[in-house]
Each structure stands twice: as C-alpha cells, then as structure tokens.
C-alpha cells in the first residue's frame, strides 16, 4: 500500500485500469421478484457490504436515489432501480447488524434513508482517508493510491434518472462498489498502524447514529447572491419567486435551477419591472420564455409588492454564535487573542498528527470556546464544553490540553 505521506523520491507504479466488474455487469433489479432474490442473496452473504447511490442532482427535483449499488462476498454485485423498487426496507432489514462501507457517507445516507435503508454500523472510506492523512480523498484517487487501480470517473455527473440506463453508466456504477470493501480493509490496516483506528470508529459511529437533518427554515434565504438584497420588499420578491419556482420544479420533477436560476431571481428582486415585457429584458427571463411564463413570474413580483409592510420578511435571524473572527479585534481583543492562540495550537497538533484541522476539532467549536470560554477555564470545564459541542471522545482527549493552555495564556 502506498504510504499516506507519499514521498517524491519514489515514483509509484502506474495504476492498472479497472475496466469491468469481476462477474460482469449485473442486470438492473427492477421488479418485486428480482428484488426478493437480491434480498435473499445479500442476507446469505458474509462480511461488510459496499453501498453506493447515484442521484440526478442538477436534473431532477430533490436528492432521491435513482440507482443503488451493493456488493458483498457471497452475493456479488446488485444494481437496484429505486424508481421501480421504491421501498428497500426489506433489504435494509436483511443487512441488519452488517457493516456498510460507503465513500463520503453523509452524501448518500439521506437518499438511502428516503428509500428505507439505514445502517447500524458503517465505515466511511473518504473520512478514513482524511484521518489517515491522504491529500486526495476522492474515490478514484483513494483506489489508485491505496490499491493501485484506476477507476473511470466520466459518468459521475450524468442524469441518472435516464431510463433505460446505458450500459457504460451501469459499468461505472458497478465498478464504484467493486473494490470498496478492499479499500476499507486497506484503510483499516493503515489507521491501525497510525494508531488512529479508534478515532475513525468513533467518527463512523457518530455518523450512523446521527438523526436526519431537520427541514431548513426559510430555505429561500439561501438563494445564491442573497447578500445583494438589502431591502425587505426586495426580500419579499425573492421569497415569492423562490416559492413559485420550487412549486413548479416539484410539479415538473426538475431541478429548480432549470426552471429559473438564482441569479435571475436576485436580479428581478433588485429591478422594479412594471410588467412582463420589462421582465423579459432581464437576464434569465429571455426570449426562450413564453409570455404565459413571464406573466406568471411578474404576478409573483406584483404580489410581493402588494404585501403590507408589517408582513414583509424580516432580515435573517440573528446568528446565535460569535461574530465573524475579523471583527473580534474591535469587539473583544482578548477573545481575538484567545482565538489566535487556539488556532495556532490546533494547526500545530493537526500537522503533527497528519490530519486536517477540521477533523481534529471543528473550527466553529474553537470559535465558540474562545468567544465565550468557561468561567474557570479549567481542563475539566473545557472538556465538558467540547463534549456538549458534539466533539467525540478522541477529539476531547487530544484537544482539551492545548485549548486549555490557549485560554489560560490569554486574558
């Protein structure tokens, strides 16, 4: 295995192209009978199960899965169509107690959960790579650096809602789980050799136990370019256009950005278009848009303009955390000094341990600690603060001494 801290003195051997799955491309599971066979096969398999999912981000509404790939010793590889087989709870139950191996688990778990699949235990090969100190942690880079194989990654951003799925796409999807368990085993060995395996296991357990994220409050506030919108009436225009776009996108099952771009929404909020004809002159509302569509958007704008002052959206809710660090020197010089000392200590320790700073302790936790530290600033109080902030035991153990020292060395 290539050392995570690759040296420039030895050129690694050229990776071997991985062109086809070992047992060939399996047929897509798209019927109750075929799905029952997959459930039985994976229940009878052994060892960890490699799991991946493909979405149609940028093409379809939401983040649902359009293909689920699995591989397990004794069961081979399965490609499941969750459109034809929308309820995968039986498969999840068949894998009860089995460790799932995913790459960048937090990306796939929401869409898998939507289909009825949730792991009891998992191993995240991307996160393992970060903790082991790899500079590049994409699946292709990890498979190449750790196992010596080259994966073809040309279909990662295609429209996976396409039916039937082309054979090259299915080959790509099958190969994504082909070596995932092998990668897991190699990374476990690397983490154990570096004394980091327990850290990784704590991280994986936290991901598996985390509840689904709650729905966002006022999601329209996350419109790209929203920082340009200063007035409440303009905010109302953004809200009305965003909600209309979302409703249309949901009904059409297309990505909202394909209905109307964020940039067009923000531009329309800043311009006082009196009618649909004037709206058509704005970027994003051009000649391809029919008159009926333009009138629909203009009606939303007109409605925003008619909202009583008292019902206009307020500026975003006050952030509950500390102010931006750039303002600390003026607002609280002592806190700024604490943050500077803490950041330097975290950076030095992360470099010593050969892992990213944000994996050692989240920057937000450090900022909150330095802005409002415990009254006595003792190691015990700092440890409790970190635990309450969600830090894992290994993070608390490693960072409590250095953060306590940073707080103690400053006012």
Automatic annotation (TrEMBL):
Residues 1-22 are annotated as: Disordered. Residues 231-311 form the HRDC domain. One of its GO terms (molecular function) is nucleic acid binding. CDD domains: RNaseD_exo. GO terms for biological process: nucleobase-containing compound metabolic process. SUPFAM superfamilies: HRDC-like (SSF47819), Ribonuclease H-like (SSF53098). This is Ribonuclease D.
């Amino acid at each position: 295995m290539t050392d995570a801290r690759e040296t420039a003195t030895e050129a690694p051997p050229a990776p071997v192209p991985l062109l086809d799955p070992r047992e060939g491309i399996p047929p897509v599971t798209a019927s109750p009978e075929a799905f029952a066979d997959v459930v039985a096969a994976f229940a009878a398999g052994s060892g960890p199960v490699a799991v991946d999912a493909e979405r149609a981000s940028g093409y379809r509404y939401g983040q649902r899965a359009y293909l689920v790939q699995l591989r397990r010793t004794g069961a081979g590889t399965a490609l499941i169509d969750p459109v034809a087989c929308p309820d995968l709870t039986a498969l999840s139950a068949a894998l009860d107690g089995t460790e799932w191996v995913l790459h960048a688990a937090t990306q796939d778990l929401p869409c898998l959960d939507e289909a009825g699949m949730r792991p009891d235990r998992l191993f995240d090969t991307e996160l393992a790579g970060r903790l082991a100190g790899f500079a590049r942690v994409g699946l292709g880079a990890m498979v190449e650096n750790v196992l010596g194989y080259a994966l073809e990654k040309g279909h990662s951003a295609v429209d996976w809602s396409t039916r039937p799925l082309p054979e090259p796409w299915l080959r790509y999807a099958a190969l994504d789980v082909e070596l995932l368990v092998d990668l897991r085993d190699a990374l476990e060995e690397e983490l154990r050799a570096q004394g980091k395996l327990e850290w990784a296991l704590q991280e994986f357990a936290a991901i598996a136990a985390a509840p689904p994220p709650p729905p966002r409050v006022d999601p329209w506030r996350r419109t790209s370019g929203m920082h340009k919108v200063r007035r409440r009436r303009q905010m109302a225009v953004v809200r009305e256009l965003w909600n209309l776009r979302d409703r249309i996108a949901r009904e059409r099952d297309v990505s909202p950005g394909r209905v109307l771009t964020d940039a067009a929404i923000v531009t329309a909020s800043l311009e006082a278009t009196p009618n649909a004809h004037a709206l058509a002159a704005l970027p994003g509302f051009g000649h391809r848009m029919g008159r009926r569509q333009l009138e629909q958007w203009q009606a939303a704008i007109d409605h925003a303009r008619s909202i009583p002052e008292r019902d206009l959206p307020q500026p975003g809710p006050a952030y509950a955390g500390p102010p931006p660090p750039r303002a600390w020197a003026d607002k609280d010089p002592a806190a700024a000094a604490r943050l500077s000392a803490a950041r330097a200590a975290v950076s030095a320790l992360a470099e010593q341990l050969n892992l990213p700073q944000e994996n050692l302790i989240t920057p937000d936790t450090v900022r909150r600690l330095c802005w409002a530290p415990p009254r006595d600033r003792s190691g015990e109080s700092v440890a409790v603060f970190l635990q309450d902030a969600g830090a894992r035991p290994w993070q608390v153990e490693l960072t409590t001494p250095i953060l306590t020292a940073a707080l103690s060395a400053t006012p």
